[in-house]
Amino acid sequence: MSQTIALALSPGVPLFELAGPCGIFGVDRSDLTGTDWYRFIVCGPPAAAVDQWFTATTPYTYDDLAAADTVIVPACHDAALTPDPDLVEAIRDASSRGARIASICTGAFVLAAAGVLDGRTATTHWLHARTLAERHPLVTVDPDPLYIDHGDVLTSAGKSAGIDLCLHLVRTDYGARVANDVARRLVSAPHREGNQRQYVDPVTLPPTSDDLRETLDWAIAHLDRPITVDELARRAHVSARTLHRQFHRRMGTNPLEWLNTQRVRRAQHLLEVSDHTIDRIAEESGFGSAITLRRHMHSALGTTPDTYRRTFGRRDARRTQHA
């Protein structure tokens, strides 16, 4: 039986925070998984207002939310960031049952009021991070990450970061390939860099000059080669120093870190879809050896190639012999 994801509806809830989860979880994607998809329900009081635009009609109440496997709480609706007491109680009940609880933007105030963030690090929209920290001193508030995942409790930053969080949940449940396919259908980036460790999949190139874009495309097509920063600079028709400046300005990183990230992503893809040995995957992704691949995957993702394959690899590819 597919797991139930419940989206919390409180009076006046912002429309954007509802639309993202509905578009990601509320559309049957079983054609991508080959098995099942989520059972998605929206839970709230009768005739609850959605922003100033609509009135919601749903047969599901907070009792149904408390019984769900995963609960997603969108942003609070009022300027005082005062959570609905009935919703807070439902979140408390869901958490005590062992449900996975996630918040979008100021939905973190609901989770904090329910006590599920006590002793944890959480994030919310940067504009409200100080208020969250002042109201709930047992919560360590970090305003920098797009989202933070503790496994059973997840929090995300502002509106679009909620989409990143939802795609992360899909990635956790069904693997990076399915999450990437969902993102592609939504015409959304499959991954945005954050300060937290997370599984990521294929690269999305930022808008940039033709020379640099062509250079990045070339590098991705030749990751198995021993590419150097000087070679990238020559292909982009700039000096190595200028290339570093362009990378920092446009991508927030340096060329070598960007290159290693693409190599990790190539390795992820091969671990998911192929039965290649770890040594061969290391060679095809440009790391040269299984030892180097393991070091970079652990640094970037907090996991090993073998564990990643067991989690996200095709069933027929999991029989591979690991080097």
TrEMBL record:
It comes from the Bacteria. Residues 307-323 have a biased composition (Basic and acidic residues). Residues 213-311 form the HTH araC/xylS-type domain. GO terms for molecular function: DNA-binding transcription factor activity; sequence-specific DNA binding. The keyword Transcription regulation applies. Gene3D superfamilies: 3.40.50.880, Homeodomain-like. InterPro entries: Class_I_gatase-like (IPR029062), DJ-1/PfpI (IPR002818), Homeodomain-like_sf (IPR009057), HTH_AraC (IPR018060), INH-QAR (IPR052158). Keywords: Transcription, Transcription regulation. PANTHER family: ARAC-FAMILY TRANSCRIPTIONAL REGULATOR, HTH-TYPE TRANSCRIPTIONAL REGULATOR RV1931C. This is Helix-turn-helix domain-containing protein. It comes from Pseudoclavibacter chungangensis.
